[in-house]
Fold this sequence. Notes:
Blueprint: E1 5-9, H1 12-15, H2 19-23, E2 31-35, H3 46-57, E3 61-64, H4 72-81, E4 84-87, H5 92-102, H6 104-113, E5 117-121, H7 123-126, E6 159-161, H8 170-180, E7 186-188, E8 193-198, E9 201-206
Parallel strand pairs: 1-5, 2-3, 2-4, 4-5, 6-7
Antiparallel strand pairs: 1-8, 8-9
Helix pairs in contact: 4-6
Amino acid sequence: MGMIKLFLSSAFSYTASMLERFAGEKVDGKSVTFIPTAANVESIKVYVGMARRAFARLGIVVDELDVSTAPAEEISHKLGHNDYIYVAGGNTFYLLQELKRSGADKLIAQEIAARKLYIGESAGSMVVAPDIGYSQAMDKPAKAPELDSFAALGIVDFYPVPHQGNFLFRKAVKKIIAEYGSSLPLRPISDTQVILVEGDNVRVEDR
């Protein structure tokens, strides 16, 4: 695998200012495949709108792709054609179900292996872990009735835990850490932190 590059956030709009330096290039005029799918089953979609505006402020062209409804050709064209991939927050189980059902999971893994920058937010960050079973305190698996396994993209060997210190998610984060802190390599991050992955180098930075 080449030098994979992942920008794993809790809240992209709060950390978007860090993207250009990490990308190592001018992002103005670049394009992103913007996957809002995880929020389809959530009542609160405010983060997705904030992320859209954050990309616009950076001058990045947003190309929407809902993998739950898009035809296969559109999925493979957009993922292959755009400069970056962004996967929004929402329900991690529903997100994984739709990525697997549409085949987007394999295409995203291929693009990451080919060194395309992947930007995750919350569920979009957790789905690159080996498995998402650990996130049940945060999300309801019932929203993904067709998901037959919690095995996720497995791009990284650790488990991001977003929203540490966020009032709304405080209980869930505590529960995940209490349940899995001793058995899994968890990486908790606050809403102003990002896990930056470059090849084997993994670090957490605050904006």
